[in-house]
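To whoever picks this up:

The parser on our side crashed when reading a file containing two proteins. I've narrowed it down to the boundary between the first structure block and the second sequence. Both blocks are reproduced below exactly, byte for byte. First block:
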Amino acid sequence: MSVLIFVCVGSRQYPFDRLFKKLDELIEQGLIKDEIFAQIGTSKYKPKNFAYKDFLERDEFKAKLEQAELVISHGATGSIIQALKKGKQVIGVTRLAKYGEHVDDHQIQTIEAFAENKYILPVFEMDKLYETIKAYQDGTADVVRWENSNPNAIIDLIDRFIQENYEFEDKNSEQNSKKLYPAADEYTLQFKS
């Protein structure tokens, strides 16, 4: 039975031709038989063997995400988390500066963080794409289900860091006590030594 592989690469000005060429190649070789739908963004290469659109409206994106069993995403945190929240299998593919796919290689760190926690399978070079897809298809992917039991975890982490590392000095404590949200310039942050 064929499943949908949904490929999403965002809407920024960076093309990701390398990914779409590799997917076409894998289909031509008969290695991928599942249906693929891709949101190709600003990529110059137009896929020959699968359906695509340059950009998707929010509702279209959500519909494709719902239909998909496997999501192949560029290394954007938002795209990856959306897929994980929907319980999808995710492959994170890094855009690399050396191919002109981004200004730097920050997507490596993003994908490594998700992969080290076993939420996704990473692909850094296209020669690993098929074996990574196959790992999901044959059930050998070493991943765990995404669970975000504390949606405020990142806020709590930042708050804890600030509390542990900085001292607050209220420049005008009497006036600020009457305000619900005092302006940031009414406080001084100093690193604790």
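<<boundary where parser fails>>
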Amino acid sequence: MHEKIYSTKEAADLLNVTPRTIQLWADSGILSVGKTPGGHRRIKADSVHRLIESMDEIAPPTNPSTAASDTILTVLLVDDDPAFLKMLRTALEQWQLPVNIQTAKDGYEALISIGHFKPQLLITDLNMPGIDGFRMLKIIQESALLENTSICVVTGMAQKQLESESLFNKDIFIIPKPVDLSKLKNFIMDYVATLVQ
């Protein structure tokens, strides 16, 4: 008996994402994939169904304080520390910015969220279990899935250690932990100002 498989398009239709998102998830190991002799991806059905179940569990609610028509900025917060995520989310909500905030506890959840929710701003930690921030950012940068997304890294890592990572460039804004919330607010306010011009 053969294992059920889907084409990239069939998997995309089932998961309600683009075929490019399926490719990203396959390349990152979120979906189990094989290839035909002609080189076409075939997605294992059991991995698609497991992902559908996990998406139902981790799909975060939208920010009820901001109506969709008032939203200017979509933000994805990624950190494995629930207290830190809550603090960041609360700060953004208290600043009364026109944002729709989503959260993820690691790179795996973030990549799933990105498939459905294309954030304009990604704020992420680096040291996380599973798919960490380094691997997540590498996958994102290689896929060009979020080429128009501004990235902010919040981390306790030393600046020298960060500079040695090839994925960091001048386009990634870095804020050391403990986070200076005024610095983060200024970064976000400046970004929002560019969107409303």
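After patching the parser it read the second block fine. Helices lie at 8-15, 19-28, 45-58, 82-94, 107-116, 133-143, 159-163, 181-196. The chain has two domains: 5-58, 68-196.
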